[in-house]
Specification:
This protein is an alpha+beta fold. It contains three helices and eight strands. Helix 1 packs across helix 2. The longest helix is centred in the first third of the chain and has 10 residues. The chain is globular, with a radius of gyration of 15 Å.
């Protein structure tokens, strides 16, 4: 947002700006993404999505941690500032893995 002091830029725009996939977008575009998103909370052990369910969003970890599993085997741990779910979303497929919060977790869910 040209001419707007950095002190009043939305805090979630700052979070998105720090993620490489979003870093090159201008503040106005980032603010539109923030406006379309929802911040949701999962308790420890909460299921974010399961294998075979439809993909409807990109998930950005704001706080906490998410475990991505393929059956019983953990394939990834995702922490603050990282995103997941993009492959299924971009390919218009169902999720190929399960995602669960390993601790209380806040996610920005971007449809």
């Amino acid at each position: 947002m040209a001419g707007v002091p950095d002190a009043i830029v939305h805090s979630l725009v700052k979070v998105l700006r720090s993620i490489p996939d979003f870093a090159d977008l201008d503040d106005e575009t980032l603010l539109e993404i923030v406006g379309a998103s929802a911040n949701l909370f999962w308790p420890a052990g909460g299921t974010i999505f399961e294998r075979g369910t439809g993909s409807e969003a990109l998930y950005l970890v704001l706080s906490g941690e998410v475990s991505i599993t393929d059956g019983e085997a953990e394939v990834s741990r995702i922490g603050p500032g990282s995103s997941f779910g993009e492959l299924s979303l971009l390919l218009h497929t169902t999720h190929s893995k399960d995602a669960r919060a390993t601790e209380p977790t806040e996610l920005m869910v971007i449809p």
